[in-house]
Amino acid sequence: MKSSSIFSSKNKNRIRVMYLTGFLLVMIALFLAICSGSTKISTDELVNALKGITTSTFGRILIYVRLPRAISAVLCGAALAVSGAVIQGVLANRLASPSIIGVNSGAGLAITVCTALGLYGGWQLSLFSFVGAFATVLLVSIGAGRLRASKGTVILIGVAVNSMLTAISEAIITFLPSVGIMSNDFKIGEISSVAYSRLLPSGLLIVIGFVGLLSLTNELEILTLGSDEAGSLGINVNLMRTVLLLLAALLAGCAVSLAGLLSFIGLIIPHALRRLGVNDHADLIRLCAIYGAGFLCLCDTAARTLFSPFEIPVGIIMSFIGAPFFIFILIKGKGGHARDNT
Description:
Layout (H helix, E strand, L loop, with lengths): L1 H34 L7 H8 L6 H35 L11 H14 L5 H25 L4 H25 L8 H5 L7 H19 L2 H7 L3 H6 L4 H23 L5 H11 L5 H25 L8 H19 L10
């Protein structure tokens, strides 16, 4: 009993350290994102700009270029990491993530359709993106359930859906070349052109989705026990899975409307945190938001500064990091062998 208490105390201390480290990571990432770039901003200029002095060149760069970009990176990183953690929990497969099972591609297809219809506003993009993401994750989930698919097969279904949705998007672009939103930067993932008109509606929806998921962490924890166990504890399994997937799709869809088809962040962050011993879903979702925000913000800063004066899309950095990580999980064989809970 005493040894169990000591172990629990050590685990709580480790989680506290992870929270503190994560907050420091986000603060450092934001500072670097705001101050780094082709135009250096000193500490004094930063303070003056934050006080509202926007008459200088530095102030305008900060307020209208770097600040919305940094906030977008933080929100998108948090949204995609949390979405990945929830999808992995609901589908009981740690290889699942928004980019791998086609959720991002569903959101991207919806944005392509939205743009083809001449709808360019922030709310329209966010709404269409959410609908596309939710339809895709629901399609994969229902298809896997009807086919009684194994955990590995779920991923293959997602990959097939991903390819199909990407092909439809490319076909639309072929017939309607004016659909410029699906540029190479958008398909790779990129945050350089985010304006407040797009940031505000998507950011608000991301916050709403995150708060909703935080209120359902107990239900998510119970779902991971399996359908029979969750049902015996009074959980409406099908309804709760739908609600959780809806909120995960809201996060992923809004992130895609801001940053394009970013890959792997919904896989890397949840998996890394679980490897570090974060198993409680309340802590997992909060820490995914914190570390996802810091991680993407740092990657975006690297994309802006590593090859200065040239700038590359942040999605390229993410793919260089994420692809080897995905292969590592496959080789280790630990990401895709969660309990069969369907």
